[in-house]
Write a structure and sequence with these properties.
Strand 3 (71-74) and strand 4 (77-80) form a beta hairpin. The chain is built from 14 helices and seven strands. The chain has one domain (2-261): Rossmann fold (3-Layer(aba) Sandwich), CATH 3.40.50.300. It has a seven-stranded mixed sheet with strand order 3-4-2-5-1-6-7, with helices on both faces. It starts with a strand and ends with a helix. Helix content is 48%, strand content 14%. The protein binds adenosine-5'-diphosphate (ADP) and magnesium ion. Adenosine-5'-diphosphate (ADP) binds at residues 11-17, 43, 122, 178-179, 206, 208-209, 212-213.
């Protein structure tokens, strides 16, 4: 089971768009996917026109069972949504000791998925720390311009710091250039720069495409909304490259080893 957090402390870089279309694309390739939202803006549910029942707040704070919070969204695709109540969870967890490990604790028995995709908020909040600690991998969507490049550097440092402080090993396994406009000199300059620096983990760029902006209005992934669009082509290519990486990054963990790992993380926290 690959557990992937889609993260960047910068807003508007395509985290939610990537989470939704990556999850939808993987599920269309017969992968069993759970899509979770750790952002109180609740953009995942809003983009998919999902009327939420129990959600991430209920799981983390109200002791709801995991089975109650997971809802089927389509073939091979389930969701744990969030809404504005998650802001309260953030405030509650910020005051609690060792609360960075709560999500890992709550999900330690989760199994039966090929992929867990976690959308996150533009911050380094306690909720995002929970997401990073739970996941084995981080994908960083990054727009192709100067400020976004600067934010990427800071995000990489932040992930390294979290790994160091909490004795975890979340690996950055994909950098995804987004909002790429090939007519724009700056976009090309920063795409080249990122390709040079991160040649082994950078994906092909996701180009600017208005269809990607329109799809959420209709509650659809880009594949359901317009399979012939540039956005669908680019996200198809990303999905393929993620599936290609399975040999490198898929940890075939049994439930036992998931429990052991989570216990190790908790031990690491109390030692620090
Ligand atoms: N490749 C793209 N082309 C055009 N619009 C995009 C693209 N990717 C994202 N968007 C739009 O940009 C805005 C921000 O994207 P979003 O995925 O919500 O970013 P984040 O989750 O990082 O804040 C949204 O309106 C989204 O529809
Ligand atoms: Mg978002």
């Amino acid at each position: 089971m690959r557990k992937i957090c889609i993260i960047n402390q910068k807003g508007g870089v395509g985290k939610t768009t990537t989470s939704i279309n990556l999850a939808a694309g993987l599920s269309r390739n017969d992968k069993k996917v759970l899509l979770m939202d750790m952002d109180a803006q609740g953009n995942v549910a809003a983009s998919l026109h999902y009327e939420s029942g129990k959600d991430m707040y209920d799981l983390l704070i109200e002791n709801a069972q995991i089975e109650e919070c997971i809802r089927p969204l389509g073939k091979n695709l389930d969701i744990i949504p969030s809404r504005e109540t998650l802001t309260k969870a953030d405030a509650i967890l910020s005051k609690k000791e060792n609360s960075q490990f709560l999500l890992s604790e709550k999900l330690k028995k989760l199994k039966g998925y090929d992929y867990v995709i976690v959308d996150s908020s533009p911050s380094l909040s306690i909720l995002n720390q929970n997401a990073l600690i739970y996941c084995d991998e981080a994908f960083i969507p990054v727009a192709t311009d100067y400020l976004s490049y600067d934010a990427l550097k800071k995000m990489i440092e932040a992930i390294m710091t979290i790994n160091h402080v909490f004795d975890t090993n979340t690996e950055i396994t994909k950098i995804i250039p987004t909002l790429y406009d090939m007519r724009n000199k700056i976009c090309k300059e920063y795409l080249d720069k990122m390709r040079n620096e991160f040649y082994d983990i950078i994906s092909e760029p996701i180009r600017v495409n208005s269809k990607l902006k329109e799809a959420p209005k209709y509650g659809k992934s880009i594949f359901a909304y317009d399979i012939k669009s540039r956005g669908a082509k680019d996200y198809t290519q990303l999905v393929k490259s993620v599936i290609n990486d399975e040999n490198k990054f898929n940890s075939a963990e049994s439930t036992d080893s998931v429990e052991l790992k989570s216990a190790k993380k908790t031990a690491g926290a109390s030692a620090s």
